[in-house]
Amino acid sequence: MADILTLVFRTFLSQSGPEKELRTGPPAPACSSLLVGDVRISRSLLLLSAFIAASERGMRVVFFTQTQIQSLPASLQRCFPSMSPDSLKKIKFSYPRTLEELLQQVASLHESTTTSPTAPSLIIIDRLEGFLRGSGGASHSGLNPRELSCAAHLSALLCDTASFLTQVLEQRGSSSAPCRIIASFMSETEADRANRDPSATDPILGVLDRYFQVRCTLDEDRSYEAVAAAAEEAWHIYLSGRGITDSSCTKDCDGDRPGVAQEWKLFVFPDGLMAFKLV
Fold first, then answer.
1. Which of 128, 125, 117, 69 is nearest to 90 (CA)?
2. CA dist., res. 219 & res. 207, Å (int)
3. What is the pLDDT of residues 197-235, one digit of tens each?
4. CA end-to-end distance (rounded Å), the chain
5. β-strand 233-240 against 180-185: which pairing, if any?
6. From residue 165, how far is each of 158, 162, 171, 174, 231 by CA, in Å?
7. In angstroms, what CA-CA distances link 230 with 16, 36, 198?
8. What is the DSSP letter of 22?
9. How far apart are CA 155 and CA 163, in angstroms?
10. Over the stretch 39-65, which tens digit does the pLDDT of each residue have?
11. N or C end of the chain, less CB within 10 A?
């Protein structure tokens, strides 16, 4: 299961209305999660994941992004004063500009284990599309085989790196094992919502889905529920994929069916605070 994302959702759980109870189970296996949807919301969830993992789990986090972090989500700023300096030091931000630089920096995580007493246990990549789009040069057909190859190459390297770091963590007896991966991706079909064809699919997303065990899909809720909750925005969050296991189900779901999707609701309030609700 995408346990880090679930930890974020539960940390900022809405206090209004009845909540379903999540079952707790044994530690989840190594998992890679892909956030698909709105860039702004995805980045906030990635930042929350990084800081919560470092402060609540004591995990060492590596956060890759092409753009400088200018501000932190309001929900994180509110709990930021209570975070210890030692927790904050566990997060390393890296700013690769191109796909080639990202590949080099991810590959270098293998070497870092020889110089660092603690191996990373969470790898975060903000906006994969920024590294992959155009990586194969110009294309007039909309389908660039080179981009698909690059997506597969990067995904395979991330999975291989996470597997290697998991072995290192286990050999050192770390409680932070296994190493997880969380990345965000904005598909072309979502980016052009005004003109999108509902039946259209993004070929790069199809490649990423082969490697990432859990997809976390963000879908804006345009109903009146946000207004009723005095929120500025409301989002559906769907967790699905082969990485969803029995330990992630609610009490009334069928425990014999791995892959059962979870649905959460995210409310964003005028002051920027976020609250989550299990649907």
1. 117
2. 21
3. 555 688 999 999 999 999 999 999 988 888 888 899 999
4. 17
5. unpaired
6. 10, 5, 10, 11, 40
7. 12, 26, 30
8. B
9. 12
10. 999 999 999 999 999 988 999 999 999
11. C
Task: In whole angstroms, give the CA distance from residue 78 to residue 74.
Answer: 6
| CB distance 146 to 133 below 8 Å | no
CA-based nearest residue to 122, from 76, 57, 27, 216:
57
Strands 214-220 and 233-240: antiparallel
Q: Are 42 and 13 in contact (CB under 8 A)?
A: no
Instruction: Give 253-266 pLDDT, tens digit per residue.
Output: 444 444 445 899 99
- Is there a contact between 263 and 237 (Cβ–Cβ < 8 Å)? yes
Quick one: pLDDT at residue 121? 95
Residues contacting residue 139 through CB under 8 Å, at least 6 positions apart? 147
Report the alpha-carbon angle 28-34-39, nearest 5. 140
Mean of pLDDT over the chain? 83
Give helix 145-171 / helix 99-112 axis angle, nearest 10°: 20
**DSSP symbol at 13:** B
- Distance (Å, whole) CA 2 – CA 10: 12
User: How far is C-alpha 139 from the chain's CA centre?
Assistant: 29
**Is residue 8 a contact partner of residue 76, using CB atoms and an 8 Å limit?**
no
Helices (H) and strands (E) in the chain, counts: 10, 9
- C-alpha gyration radius of the chain: 19
- Is residue 262 within 8 Å of 241, Cβ to Cβ? no
Residue 13 has pLDDT above 60, yes or no: yes
pLDDT of residue 153: 97
d(CA 68, CA 17): 38
| Phi, psi dihedrals of residue 233, rounded to the nearest 5° | -140, 155
